[in-house]
Please model this.
Amino acid sequence: MKKLLSFLLVPVCLLLCAVGCGKNDEKLEDGKFYTVTEAYESGYLTREQVMSIAYYHNGGREHNEDIMSESYQPLPKAPEKLSEVTDKAIRKNYLEIYLTQEEEATLSDVKLEEYNGTYNDCVAVMIEATYIGYPQSTHTEKIDGINIYYKDGNEIFIWRN
Model:
């Protein structure tokens, strides 16, 4: 009886594992994009995480010298570099959501220009699409006293999966 039960349970367990693995891949492709402000105001990012994003994006303390001491250390990027699977999932998701009007667009038209860290289930990235022109106007996103400086119209997205 134990052998028969084991014989029946093994395929069921394998099937459940396979279904679960498929959901994880699907979940990566079904992420949602937020601005840094939206992610912070929704509680997906803490103030310290926003400070770290600003530090990485601005190239250090610049534009935030009054709130970041000279010894300020941002949260480490963990992972240091995005996996190919996550990179592709973000680009594919971006293409599906934002570039549907561009019929000729492919995954190779979208690249992650900048990676500013992963914080829980939020990935801070700047995305560039080869056929989108970004205005050359500088602006600053101010979030709870933290300045994220942009040199053009492109901005950081928070991709939450």
Observations:
- The mean pLDDT is 82.
